[in-house]
Amino acid sequence: MIFLTQLTALLFxxxxxxxxxxxxxxxxxxVNFVPQVTIGQDSEANFTKGTAVPVDGNTVGQYIRxxxxxxxxxxxxLATIVMMIGGVLWLTAGGNQTRVSExxxx
Length: 106
Fold this sequence. Notes:
Helix content is 57%, strand content 4%. The chain has helices spanning 2-15, 26-29, 59-91, 97-105, and strands spanning 32-33, 53-54. The N and C termini lie far apart (59 Å). The mean pLDDT is 83.
């Protein structure tokens, strides 16, 4: 039954290819993305809160790229904090090898 349904759909799309084609032009699609938060102050992409952004082939990629850049900054800050904690633990170890090894793990 599933095979026949798939075969029917394939024959339909072969007979009427325009029915299954996606419309890539943003002017006719009218699909807009309205971000809930502002992300990115980039020359290529700027997603400002409440401002409609027309969806095209690059919109999702630009949004993911901006989220990635934001995440890299957050991870850099967290890595710096973790290294600082390890340094403070090492300074306060007082020569105790167990505390020094714990600090090195941090």
